[in-house]
Amino acid sequence: MSDDNFKAKDISRKPPAPPDPNQKFWDMADTFIQLANENSKGAAAGQVCASMMYASARFGAFVASGDAPSEATFKDQIDGAVAYFRTEYEKMLRENFRDYAENFQSYHPEKK
């Protein structure tokens, strides 16, 4: 067999997509969700949800206090930090409620 009639096609690979700079964020969120799902096997979902909100609030206070250069600064910035966390949480909550509203049947096929 001769290679004289061989017509090479462009078989070069596309460059890989750049890594998602938020991948670590999504991986951590998935880990927390998996933990919540596991805890839901032995507790009411509402209790698990309340526990996760408490843990998030506690960790948020830890992060905000650690970022403050002094106790006085931390105390002065509490209202601003609370407003920031509330606003960010509400954005995430609304986005997830929107997703569940748009995809309700696929998330809950047992409900008609």
Overview of this protein structure:
By secondary structure, the protein is mostly helical. The chain has a domain at 43-107: Orthogonal Bundle (Helix Hairpins), CATH 1.10.287.3020. Helices cover 68% and strands 0% of the residues. It has four helices and no strands. It has helices spanning 23-39, 45-67, 71-102, 104-107. It is extended and about 80 Å long.
Précis, in short:
With 112 residues, the protein is mainly α.
Q: What's the gyration radius in Å?
A: 24 Å
Q: Low-confidence parts lasting 5 or more residues at pLDDT below 50?
A: none
User: Quick one: how many beta strands?
Assistant: 0
Query: What's the SSE pattern?
Result: HHHH
Question: How far apart are the termini?
Answer: 64 Å
Structural class: mainly alpha
Would you identify the CATH architecture of the domain at 43-107? Orthogonal Bundle
Region (Disordered): 1-24
Pfam families: DUF3144
Protein name: DUF3144 domain-containing protein
Biased composition (Basic and acidic residues): 1-13
Main features:
112 residues; mainly alpha
SSE arrangement:
Blueprint: H1 23-39, H2 45-67, H3 71-102, H4 104-107
Biased composition (Basic and acidic residues): 1-13
Region (Disordered): 1-24
Protein name: DUF3144 domain-containing protein
